[in-house]
């Protein structure tokens, strides 16, 4: 479905641009689901207080949200459609708001927009030119997470 959307919106004769993203809701939903399932920072950055307080430091774990069945139904399934309304074009705002791979609040990742831009341009460029397949008689990649 993502490659169909790439073919329909970008075609094969030019590289993707960020303007294309506005017309590619399914691709956006795939990238959101990739960031939910392949969260690169399971334990968020540690923070500490500057003044004496009863709380010394908080180590928040983003995975507790990204893999919470109360927030994302069947969290072990890779399902980009969870971010899209039934029309396949508009986004489910509550689901998108719960996607927090960049943290939240004052110290949220300052590189979020450049990271999201790179994800879109690199992944669509790859899938525009290549199909990624499991080899004949091969196994799909092992997605068992590694702790830490
Ligand atoms: C997919 C890629 C990335 C992910 C998932 C990510 C995620 C995060 C997370 C979870 C934090 C901690 C937020 C918190 O403390 O609550 C963070 C902080 C930060 N990130 Fe990223 N990041 C990404 C890419 C980038 C890039 C490309 C840059 C720079 C161009 C960047 C620069 C920073 C900086 C400077 C901070 C510290 C912000 C602060 O403490 O005020 N990140 N990032």
Automatic annotation (TrEMBL):
Q: Which UniProt keywords apply?
A: Heme, Iron, Metal-binding, Monooxygenase, Oxidoreductase, Signal
Domain of life, per UniProt, equals Eukaryota
Please state which protein family the record places this protein in.
Answer: Belongs to the cytochrome P450 family.
According to its UniProt record, which cofactors does this protein need? heme
Binding site residues for heme: 109
The organism of origin for this protein = Plectus sambesii
Give the InterPro entries listed for this entry: Cyt_P450, Cyt_P450_CS, Cyt_P450_E_grp-I, Cyt_P450_sf
Q: Which Pfam families match?
A: p450
This chain belongs to the protein called Uncharacterized protein
A Gene Ontology molecular-function term?
monooxygenase activity
Q: Decide whether keyword Amino-acid biosynthesis is in the record.
A: no
């Amino acid at each position: 479905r993502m490659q169909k959307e790439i073919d329909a919106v970008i075609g094969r004769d030019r590289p993707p641009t960020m303007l294309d993203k506005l017309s590619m809701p399914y691709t956006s939903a795939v990238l959101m689901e990739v960031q939910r399932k392949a969260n690169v920072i399971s334990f968020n950055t540690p923070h500490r207080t500057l003044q004496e307080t009863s709380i010394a430091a908080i180590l928040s774990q983003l995975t507790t949200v990204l893999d919470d069945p109360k927030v994302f139904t069947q969290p072990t399934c890779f399902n980009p459609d969870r971010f899209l309304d039934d029309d396949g074009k508009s986004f489910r705002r509550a689901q998108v708001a719960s996607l927090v791979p960049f943290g939240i609040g004052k110290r949220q990742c300052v590189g979020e927009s450049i990271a999201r831009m790179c994800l879109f341009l690199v992944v669509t460029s790859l899938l525009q030119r290549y199909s990624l397949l499991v080899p004949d008689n091969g196994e799909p990649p092992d997605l068992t997470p590694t702790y830490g």
